Amino acid sequence: MLQWKHAMALPVSLRRLPAVVAMTPTIFFVVVVLCFGLLWTVWTSFTSSKLLPSNDFVGLEQYIRLFGSDLWQVAVVNVAVFGLLFIGGCLALGYVLAVLLDQNIRFEDGFRTIFLMSASLSFVVTGIVWQWLFDPTYGIQAAVRNWGFSDFKFDWLARKETAIYALVGAGVWQATGLGMIIMLAGLRGVDQDIWNATRVDGVARWRVYIYVIPAMIRPMIATAAVLLSLTAIKIYDLVVVMTGGGPGISTEVPAKYVMDMLFQRSNLGQATAAAIIMLLAISLLVGLPWIIIRLRQLRSAGGEQE
């Protein structure tokens, strides 16, 4: 007790000193490493850097080349298709699983662990497993043909038209558990009075889950959507393991475009320009929902004051 009183008698600056010392490495990392790295990347994207950085300023030439590249345009379209299907699939399946677990079933902890187990794997492991499943020689196609269906085809990875959907299936399988656990937390936070009121009014339980509950757990759905969006934009290892960007360039994505420009084509300026565009897209996905929520809060506060 005496030591606590003695500590409280110290000046505020001295009481904060241990916290400042503990946070110094983190502050140094954020300010020096991240900020300097970001500024260096932005500057390099305006230069003609190839294998090594240079200070040859070329303005927006790298960005003009980037948006004029057919490979980049294909990559953007692919990540948009992958992102929409990936996010939609994870949210839909995750919500269904969350609703099923919300029924006070037996062995809920076990089922929750099983559904989350895939999320603990890396996309490299997931890609290898799903590559085996889609392999015509060893995967699903071979198994079904061994059962006597000799005309059965399941060669999605070998066809340009379906390869991107094979990636979506693998991604949804892994990330659905993340959306499920976030939305399950939202379901557990729903006031019991809501269920009592709908029961008195004779509203079917499935209607409540479809028409009422999603609006009440909107923040959880938005959180899951943002996290899944970040995963979709940065998708790289799953593509490299399963398809390598092929067949042809049918599954090329922006992250792979950056890595190829950086390590295979030794075009540092083009790689950093593409990386900056990806950073802007990620910042927009993270910042826009926060701005919308903040504006709604300000409007609600203004309405209450009136």
Automatic annotation (TrEMBL):
| Domain of life of the source | Bacteria
Q: Which GO terms describe its biological process?
A: transmembrane transport
State the species of origin.
Answer: Rhizobium freirei PRF 81
One Gene Ontology cellular component: plasma membrane
Is Transmembrane helix tagged as a keyword?
yes
Q: Which Gene3D superfamilies match?
A: MetI-like (1.10.3720.10)
Record has ATP-binding as a keyword: no
Q: Which residues form a coiled coil?
A: none
The protein's location, in the record's own words, is: Cell membrane
User: Pfam families per the record?
Assistant: BPD_transp_1 (PF00528)
Query: InterPro entries from the entry?
Result: ABC_transporter_permease, MetI-like, MetI-like_sf
Q: How does it sit in the membrane?
A: Multi-pass membrane protein
Q: Where is the ABC transmembrane type-1 domain?
A: 76-289
Q: What is this protein called?
A: Putative permease component of ABC transporter
Classification lineage: Bacteria, Pseudomonadati, Pseudomonadota, Alphaproteobacteria, Hyphomicrobiales
